Amino acid sequence: MASTFLLAGVFVLDLIAFALAVAAEHQRATATIANDRTFQFCSYSSNVATVLGVVSLLFLVAAQVLIMVVTRCLCCGKALQPGRRRVWAIVMFIVSWFTFFIAVVCLLAGSAGNARHTRTPVLLNETAPHCFTPRRGIFAAGAAFIVFTGILSSLFYINYSNADESYPPQSRDAGIRMG
Questions:
Q1: In this structure, are residues 147 and 14 in contact, taking their beta carbons and an 8 Å threshold?
Q2: The dihedral of CA 71, 76, 77, 80: what is its sign?
Q3: Residues 6 or more apart from 51 whose CB is under 8 A from it?
Q4: What residues contact 138, with CB distance under 8 A and at least 6 apart?
Q5: What is the pLDDT of residues 101-154, one digit of tens each?
Q6: 129 φ/ψ angles, rounded to the nearest 5 degrees
Q7: Can you tell me the distance from the alpha carbon of 97 to that of 157, in angstroms, rounded to the nearest whole number?
Q8: From residue 4, how far is each of 1, 7, 109 by CA, in Å?
Q9: pTM of the entire predicted model
């Protein structure tokens, strides 16, 4: 039987990671071209989205590690009972790791892109400098894959728990019964 405390803990960790990723999307760095007496340069807003993206990534990793430690990452420990639950547990394991890696890539790319700033000043008479900002939706995509990862890893844990339940042992009485 699946532990409701574990599922609630994973849900809370994934919910915090999702909220931080959405907040990072709304706090992305914006760039404006500022003028000095002789130079033009890019002026950026705050770097809050970088920190939010990294903290969101840490909460996502904590939720995934929690599930994998409890289930012994599907590869360690005793074998699961054969049947439909074992097949679904293996499928959910693979797909949850796939969505986890996509979420990690989105959050890392968004955080790195948000932290990148163009610092090259350009003379006033030349063309305006190109100010790099992260693409819209990169943190939102990470937030969506956080939700998918949370759902799939919870389904993995439920199917793993149901496939892990052992059937009552059948006793093989070799003795002779009297009466």
A1: yes
A2: positive
A3: none
A4: 25, 106, 109, 110, 113
A5: 999 999 999 999 888 876 666 666 677 777 778 888 999 999 999 999 999 999
A6: -70, 155
A7: 13
A8: 9, 5, 34
A9: 0.83
